[in-house]
C-alpha cells in the first residue's frame, strides 16, 4: 500500500531565485499564505513553524533539505487540529526548475512541484486537508509573482 | 483498483464568465492554450473541436454537458496519428464563484487501466491551466479566505 500523498504542479512566470525567495521569506509568505507565515532560517536541521498572524502555531517541523533555488524539504506536522496531528509527521518537498512545459513548444517557465506525503500509512485526513490548501496557496503565490502576462511564450 | 483519474484545482482572479469564454472560444484559447484554437461553446450534443497551431484538427469530440458558466463536459480523443489507440476519455470543468473570483476544477477521467494518454494529459493540464490563469489575471492575488476559516475553527475549539 502506498503512503497517502498529494502532488501539485504549477508554472510561474518568474525566476527560480525569485520563487525561492518568496517561499522562504516570512514577510512574502505572509502575503500569499492567507494570513499565515513561516518562522525558520530555512537551513538544513533548523526548526520550522507555520503560524497564524495572531501568533498561534498551526504546524511545526524541521528543514530536512535546502538547496537554493532548487529544492526545499520540510518535515511537517499539523498542531492545531487534533485529528490531523494524530496522523503524525509528513514530508513536503518543493522542487523548482526552469522547464519547458511541452517539448513541442519550447516555451519555458518556472515549474514548481509540491509533493506532500505522510510518513506513515493509513491516515489520510491530513493529506485531504493539504489537498484543499495547496491549490489556494500556490494559486495566490503565482498571482503575486506575476504581472498579468501569460506564463508561456512559444 | 481505481481507474486513473486526474484532478486539478486552480483559483483565478476573474469571474466565471471570463473563464468560460476562455475555455470555449478559439480566439481566446489560442492566446494561452499554446496556439490551439478550441471551440466548445456549443450545446450538449454539438462538437468540441481543437485545431493545432499548424492548422490540423487535433480534436473533434462530443460536448456531453454545457451549462454556462458553471459546468462543461466533453469527450477527449486526440486525433494525432501517432497517438495510442485508446477509447475516448472525458473532461469535466466546474467553475465556481469564489470571493468574486473563480475556483476552476478540471477532472479528466474515464481512462482504461494502463492508459498512455493519461500520462500525457497529467503533464499537459497543469501547463495549460497555469497559462490560462496567467492570461486572465492582472497580477492581483486571491482575497484572504481559508486563513479566516481556519482561525475561526481553531478559535472555536
Structure characteristics:
A: 154 residues, alpha+beta, Alpha-D-Glucose-1,6-Bisphosphate, Chain A, domain 4, 4 helices, 27% helix, B: 157 residues, 32% strand
Structure report:
The complex is a heterodimer of chains A (154) and B (157). In chain A, strand 6 and strand 7 form a beta hairpin. Chain A contains four helices and seven strands, in the order E-H-H-E-E-E-E-H-E-E-H. Chain A is 27% helix and 38% strand. Chain A is α+β, with helices and mostly antiparallel strands and 154 residues long. Chain B has a single domain, classed as START domain (Alpha-D-Glucose-1,6-Bisphosphate, Chain A, domain 4, 2-Layer Sandwich). In chain B, a hairpin with a 5-residue loop joins strand 3 and strand 4. Chain B has a seven-stranded antiparallel β-sheet with strand order 1-7-6-5-4-3-2. With 157 residues, chain B is α+β, with helices and mostly antiparallel strands. Helices cover 31% and strands 32% of the residues of chain B. The chains are: A alpha+beta (154), B alpha+beta (157). Chains A and B meet through strand 1 and helix 4 of A and strand 1, helix 3 and helix 4 of B.
- Enumerate how many helices of chain A there are, as a single number: 4
Task: Report mean pLDDT of chain A, rounded to a whole number.
Answer: 88
Q: What is the name of the CATH topology of chain B? A: Alpha-D-Glucose-1,6-Bisphosphate, Chain A, domain 4
| End-to-end gap of chain A | 41 Å
- Strand percent estimate of chain A: 35-45%
SSE order of chain A, as H and E? EHHEEEEHEEH
Q: Let me know the average pLDDT of chain B.
A: 86
Radius of gyration of chain B: 17 Å
The chain pair forming the largest interface, with residue counts per chain, is:
A-B, 41 and 36 residues
Q: State the major sheet of chain A.
A: 7 strands, antiparallel
- State the secondary-structure class of chain B: alpha+beta
Amino acid at each position: 500500500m502506498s503512503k497517502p500523498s498529494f502532488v501539485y504542479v504549477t508554472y510561474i512566470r518568474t525566476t527560480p531565485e525569485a520563487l525561492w525567495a518568496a517561499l522562504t521569506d516570512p514577510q512574502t509568505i505572509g502575503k500569499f499564505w492567507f494570513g499565515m507565515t513561516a518562522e525558520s532560517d530555512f537551513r538544513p536541521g533548523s526548526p520550522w513553524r507555520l503560524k497564524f498572524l495572531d501568533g498561534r502555531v498551526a504546524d511545526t517541523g524541521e528543514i530536512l533539505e535546502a538547496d537554493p533555488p532548487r529544492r526545499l524539504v520540510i518535515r511537517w506536522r499539523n498542531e492545531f487540529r487534533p485529528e490531523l496531528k494524530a496522523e503524525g509527521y509528513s514530508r513536503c518537498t518543493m522542487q523548482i526548475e526552469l522547464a519547458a512545459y511541452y517539448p513541442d513548444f519550447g516555451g519555458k517557465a518556472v515549474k514548481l512541484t509540491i509533493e506532500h506525503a505522510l510518513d506513515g500509512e493509513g491516515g489520510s485526513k491530513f493529506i485531504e486537508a493539504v489537498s484543499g490548501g495547496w491549490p489556494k496557496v500556490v494559486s495566490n503565490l503565482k498571482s503575486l509573482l506575476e504581472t498579468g502576462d501569460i506564463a508561456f511564450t512559444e | 483498483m481505481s481507474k486513473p483519474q486526474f484532478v486539478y484545482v486552480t483559483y483565478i482572479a476573474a469571474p466565471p464568465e471570463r473563464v468560460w469564454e476562455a475555455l470555449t472560444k478559439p480566439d481566446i484559447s489560442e492566446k494561452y492554450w499554446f496556439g490551439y484554437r478550441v471551440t466548445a461553446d456549443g450545446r450538449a450534443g454539438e462538437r468540441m473541436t481543437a485545431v493545432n497551431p499548424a492548422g490540423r484538427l487535433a480534436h473533434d469530440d462530443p460536448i456531453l454537458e454545457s451549462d454556462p458558466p458553471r459546468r462543461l463536459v466533453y469527450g477527449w480523443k486526440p486525433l494525432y496519428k501517432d497517438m495510442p489507440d485508446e477509447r475516448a476519455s472525458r473532461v469535466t470543468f466546474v467553475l465556481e464563484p469564489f470571493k468574486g473570483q473563480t475556483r476552476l476544477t478540471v477532472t479528466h477521467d474515464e481512462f482504461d487501466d494502463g492508459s498512455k494518454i493519461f500520462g500525457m494529459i497529467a503533464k499537459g493540464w497543469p501547463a495549460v491551466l497555469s497559462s490560462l490563469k496567467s492570461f486572465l489575471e492582472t497580477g492581483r492575488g486571491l482575497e484572504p479566505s481559508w486563513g479566516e476559516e481556519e482561525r475561526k475553527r481553531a478559535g472555536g475549539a
